[in-house]
Design a protein that fits this description.
The chain has 156 residues and is mainly alpha-helical. 74% of the residues lie in helices and 0% in strands. The chain has one domain.
């Protein structure tokens, strides 16, 4: 790999690791930077999974402190987390751990590895169990985004 290829790969890894963009942003970037589909997929998936172990081990300690944030930030965080917990608990009642895989696999805003890690933490799924579920969801989402990016399917 040339020096520029390493820089391009680093850009894809970083964008894919970022919340909100995740692999939905990293994979199209990789293709735009000239990576062929297979390396683009691998880079975006790897980047998306980079923060997950850290998130799973840190969020359990961090989330209880969010209500202490000042003013509307703390209140908003509490409302958002309570809403996610209620919403996802119902899905888990019906689908079990498959619900986490399907949630992460859905390539839409506000879904993905970051939110999946938050949900796993809220629902008390141990990190060692949540990590492979989230990874499977990321692999599926990556395939869907890749197929859409190369024009084989349309994502709504």
């Amino acid at each position: 790999m040339q020096a520029m290829d390493w820089l391009a790969a680093a850009k894809v890894l970083l964008l894919s690791a970022a919340p909100i963009a995740e692999l939905r942003g990293g994979l199209p970037l990789a293709l735009a930077l000239g990576f062929s589909p297979a390396p683009a997929y691998v880079l975006a998936v790897a980047g998306n999974l980079l923060p997950v172990p850290l998130l799973l081990f840190v969020l359990g300690r961090l989330l209880p402190h969010l209500p202490r944030l000042p003013g509307p930030i703390g209140r908003g965080a509490v409302r958002y987390l309570a809403w996610q917990e209620r919403r996802q608990r119902e899905r888990f009642r019906h689908l079990g751990h498959l619900a986490l895989v399907l949630f992460v696999a859905t390539p839409l805003p506000a879904t993905g590895a970051w939110t999946g890690a938050v949900i796993a933490t809220l629902l008390g799924i141990p990190p060692w169990k949540a990590l492979p579920l989230i990874a499977l969801g990321v692999l599926i989402a990556g395939a869907a985004v890749l197929l859409a990016a190369v024009g084989l399917i349309a994502l709504v």
